[in-house]
Amino acid sequence: METTQESKLQMGQTFPVTIKRLGINGEGVGYFKRQVVFIPGVLPGEEVVAEVTAIKKGFAEAKVKRIRKQSPQRVAPPCPVHEQCGGCQLQHISYEGQLEQKRDIVVQAFERYTKQIAHKLDIRPTIGMEDPWHYRNKSQLQVGIDNRRVIAGLYGLNSHELVDISDCMIQHKATNEVTQKVKQILENLGISIYNEKKHKGAVRTIVTRIAVRTGEIQLVLVTAREDFPRKDQFVKQVQTALPQVKSIMQNINGERTSIIFGDETFRLAGKEFIQEALGDLKFELSARAFFQLNPTQTVKLYDEVKQAAKLTGKEKVVDAYCGVGTIGLWLANEAAEVRGMDIIEEAIEDAKKNAKQHGFLNTMYVTGKAEQVLPKWVKEGWKPDIIVVDPPRTGCDDMLLNTILKVKPKRVVYVSCNPSTLAKDVAKLIGDYEVSYVQPVDMFPHTAHVECVLQLILKKGN
Length: 462
Fold this sequence. Notes:
- This protein is an alpha/beta fold.
- The chain is built from 12 helices and 21 strands.
- Strand 4 and strand 5 form a beta hairpin.
- The longest helix has 19 residues.
């Protein structure tokens, strides 16, 4: 019993460790005397000396003290606040290395949850970006005061210190430019900034979104109350300094919360919407409308979905978790019919509007859960050939997976933003379905996120 106790790490202990792999959040994973340790900022193959920062049930957390043997994939992070911010977990890895590591994260997930098929799976190289910087089309930055200066940023990693990142290297340059100017205008006009602890002050968050294809920009100022000092002057100065801002909106959030948006949104100047396009599809983006954050990679992702769906013009397609309908609309011109569902009513209204705007007559959208709506359609004699699922990070609802096994579409295309829940869900379907391939796509370079498109084909005899 004593030897087991000795082998366990203690708080503050310094120890040598070799990093075996990256975890799902981009942290290095190593083992010290068979105890698993998570260490941010290190790479597989590196030999490091680390210091224990936390002891949890079944694992320990540590920080790197020094690197004895460095990985050839290691680079110096170009962002000056990389370590404080924590928004990019992988900036210390070359971009080619990131694409390899993301594929490996997917491989690990399948080895863990689908042992019986993992060894023979076709997990393809990650599809990356030609230029993996300045790709995000939207920024949401908290506003604060630092030495009488207005700053805008995110709360630091494991802290409540606001880190100014209004010149972020993964944000579109135009959103950075608008944020910098808006900070300056707020400061020059002496407009009060919200203080979270005291629950006082006006301006909480600067939200900036660019429609990349049209160049139109929308600015949303989130405030603690509707009225704030020098509002009209603020609007005039934004219009003068930033003519590219076509929509100036105000959202009110007076709650003590970390949620960014409140329920009420007003137009202060310009248009209610900005116009964006993906491929041949056009979208009107309102202040709170969901839209993919990396349009360049979204086109690649949706093209992979289309390829996996193998449409001939005769298929009935279900777009489960359809949101505002983007994936279904991407497929609609090559399918016989597309039906989508989502539990969010506003998203379904947007999906209907988007389909109508594009002149699609072969689409139908309803509010509800796929596992309730699908059996009803089957009962009415409408059976899908293909089901596309794009669930949240928590994966598919078990009832939906059971419904898929009952309905037995010829193909299932699973779009995932979480390799662990993807592999867990696939494990429940592989009795009846064959996994053709898994295609990782890098939607968020320099972060630990990886999206996948997976194609499942119904086994013969089912």
